Amino acid sequence: MEGNSVKTFNYFLGIPLMTVFALGGCSDKDEVENPPVAENENLGDNKPGTNEASSQKIDFTFKSFELNVENADGKKYEAEYETEGAETEASIDDEINDKKLAGDEAMEQLAPKLEKLEFNQDAPEDEVIAEVVKDFELNEDFKNLELDITYSDGETKEYTESK
């Protein structure tokens, strides 16, 4: 009988421990589970022979995008997007509008803004900053703006402006 109670004890102790270890790897709240997709207009609404909508992951002109803006009264807006292979992360920390989003919620807000951006690594710094301020609907009287971008070819650039 004593052997059974030890096995029972190990079983009841083992399950919660395995659960903790399994869930420990899922703690990255910025991870995007459902990255935005672009509908393929050339194939119609469905893939031939299937009931699946035809779509593919949207590819922006950069692998990572990190925007930090501080307005005149010290409130900050931070937006981050990063993709590496199949993993995508996104987050927004907006003290100005009192919003904090991560993962899919953040990606829903960021994707339309990131899609509008048309500059590349050869664009002048003032044009890049002006386009980001416009497309992210930021107040132009910000105090500091820092933007770090890693473009699709791996080149990393930093853009800054202080007023």
For the largest sheet, list the strands in their spatial order. 6-5-4-3-7-8
Query: Mean pLDDT, nearest integer?
Result: 78
Low-confidence stretches: 8-27, 38-56
Summarize the main sheet.
Answer: 6 strands, antiparallel
Radius of gyration: 22 Å
Note the total helix count: 3
Distance between the termini: 77 Å
- Overall SS class: alpha+beta
Amount of beta strand: 25-35%
Relative helix content: 25-40%
Number of strands: 8
Order of helices and strands: HEEEEEEHHEE
3D shape: globular
Protein name: YusW-like protein
Organism: Peribacillus glennii
Region (Disordered): 28-55
Written overview of the protein:
With 163 residues, the protein is an alpha+beta fold. The protein has a domain at 60-162. The protein is built from three helices and eight strands; from the N terminus they run αββββββααββ. It has helices at residues 2-24, 104-116, 125-135, and strands spanning 37-39, 55-57, 62-70, 76-84, 87-94, 99-102, 144-151, 156-162. The strands form two sheets. The protein has a six-stranded antiparallel beta sheet. Strand 4 (76-84) and strand 5 form a beta hairpin. The protein is globular. The termini are far apart. Mean pLDDT is 78; it is low at 8-27 and 38-56.
